[in-house]
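Review session, final week

We close the course with one last complete record, chosen because it touches almost every idea we covered. It is 23S rRNA (Guanosine-2'-O-)-methyltransferase RlmB, a protein from Rubripirellula tenax with 264 residues. Go through it on your own first, then we will talk.
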Amino acid sequence: MPRIQIHDLADPRLSRYRDLQTEAGRSATGTFVVEGGFCVSKLAQSRLSIRSVVVQQGRHEDVLCQLPDDVSVFEVSASDIRELVGYDFHRGILAEGVRPPAALLKDVSFDAADPPLALAVFGVSLTENLGSMIRSATALGVHRLVIGPRTADPFSRRSIRVSMGTVFEQSVFYVNDTFAELTALATDHNIRVVATTLGPGAIALDQFRRDDRPILLVMGSEPDGVGRDVEAAATDRITIPMKLNTDSLNVSVAAAVFMYGLTK
């Protein structure tokens, strides 16, 4: 594992880490950035590849020893690492990971050893909510994640951090044509597309009856729900009954309740 001290922040090998608060659109590079020792360690233990690491001099030796031998490690000073990323950074280590190939919804499959459940997220733009849902899903053994249009990037720094690196355990699938792809999933692959909704006619979670078909659980945004295309394609609609004039839950809390109910 080569360790290289860098004193010039203009060094092109540091370009992926520069001004991270303005990283919109950088997913096109095919990589993502992870920050903090815990999440970098999770990345090192995952099946995903690491392109490079930036570390503050004298820190995180326990993480560095987990890295593959071919990963370049760039050592910089504490002041330089903060200037490099563009904000007051104290975690001391960052890594550039390689995004897994984008899989399509039609490629999702289930096997008998896993919970017959996948989590689909449509229109949730807050990275914190997405990261929290991913963390709950992984804790419950749900490791198929479907990302719909207008949804936050599961490999954004903040989503990774809130997920505590559990996103690296997920198989991620992407949807482009919501109605057509969900309809095909239900008709061609015999998967129940279960939309979560506050609308009338939805079945209470504790009254929902599973069968031998796998389930795609679809969560939508708090303002707009799952959307018309999802509702039109859904085979089932479920809801969480609430009391004391409570009209809704945070989407990540609701997702955890639904997933627990569908996996127990």
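Two points worth writing down before the exam:
The chain has a mean pLDDT of 93.
The domain at 103-263 is CATH 3.40.1280.10 (Alpha/beta knot).
Good luck, everyone.
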